[in-house]
Amino acid sequence: RLYQIPFGMPNCEDESEARTLYLVGDFSAPAEFFVTLGVFSFLYSMAALVLYLRFHSLYTENTKLPFTDFCVTVCFAFFWLVAAAAWGKGLSDVKAATRPSALIAAMAVCQGDGVLCNAGTTPAMGLANISVVR
Q: Which end of the chain is more exposed for a tag (fewer CB within 10 A), N or C?
């Protein structure tokens, strides 16, 4: 939800007053889907572990239970792949929206003649990239 994040922008005409720029974009849906699926996968894994360890005889005697377990596991694997792809796309969109050159282009104060705007440093996205690989 980048639109909720204010970004302080200097005002060259009046040094005492700064203007506020709001970022554009809402990329929360892929992240929420990724995290929700991760939580449900963890809960299902714990329930399956209890079933395997505590109710082993029920699991081995019933022929439908292992097939159901297999089907649910396949569904989780498929949705995990979809969630990872969605989060990867969401992350690339966040990177594009917060790229320093895109922010400078959105600032009206940097569009004037003879004005040179510099971003300074580039944000580190290494940990965010690792979250997609996991």
A: C
Domain count, the chain: 1
Closest Cα partner for 91 from 60, 55, 130, 58? 130
| Alpha-carbon span 109 to 77, nearest angstrom | 49
pLDDT tens, residue by residue, 56-104: 888 888 889 889 989 999 999 999 999 989 988 888 888 877 777 777 7
Question: Would 67 be classed as within a structural domain?
Answer: yes
Q: Using the 8-state DSSP alphabet, how is residue 13 labeled?
A: S
- In which domain, by residue range, is 101 found? 29-110
Place of tokens 């019933």: 62
pTM above 0.70, yes or no: no
Cβ–Cβ contacts within 10 Å for residue 27, how many? Answer: 20
Tokens of 54: 């505590």
What one-letter code names the amino acid at 66? P
